[in-house]
Amino acid sequence: MLVRRGSGPGPHDAGWKDTVDLSPSESVDVAVRFTDYPGRYLLHCHNLEHEDMAMMATFRTT
Q1: 31 touches 2 (CB < 8 A)
Q2: Residue 39 pLDDT > 90
Q3: C-beta neighbour count of 4 within 10 angstroms
Q4: Which of the chain's termini has less CB crowding within 10 Å, N or C?
Q5: Alpha-carbon dihedral of residues 6, 11, 12, 17, nearest 10 degrees?
Q6: Can you give the C-alpha Rg of the chain in angstroms?
Q7: pLDDT score recorded for residue 5
C-alpha cells in the first residue's frame, strides 16, 4: 500500500497483502505488479450486498 487517507500507510499496513480493510468513505492507493500473470482479475468488496453498488469490478492486464 502506498497511501491511506492521503498520507503514508499505517503500521498495520506493512507487508504483502491481498486484502485491504477500509473504514466507511476511506480510500487507499495500492501498487500491484501483474507482469507474470496477464489476464482478467476481479476486484471486490467482501460484503456480497455491495456488488450492486459498484464495489465489484473486473479488469484485464496484458
Answers
A1: yes
A2: yes
A3: 19
A4: C
A5: 70
A6: 13
A7: 85
Which residue type sits at 60? R
- Residue 61 cell numbers, joined: 492486464
Q: Quick: pLDDT tens for 12-30.
A: 888 887 788 888 888 888 8
Q: How far apart are CA 17 and CA 15, in angstroms?
A: 6
Scanning the structure block, which residue is given the C-alpha cell 492486464? Answer: 61
pLDDT for 42: 84
Instruction: Using alpha carbons, select from 10, 32, 34 the residue that is nearest to residue 23.
Output: 10
Task: With 0.70 as the threshold, say if the pTM is over it.
Answer: no
Q: Which of 27, 23, 25 is nearest to 3 (CA)?
A: 27
- Could you tell me where the beta strands, DSSP code E, fall in 1-62? 3-4, 28-29, 39-44, 56-61
> Cell for 4?
491511506
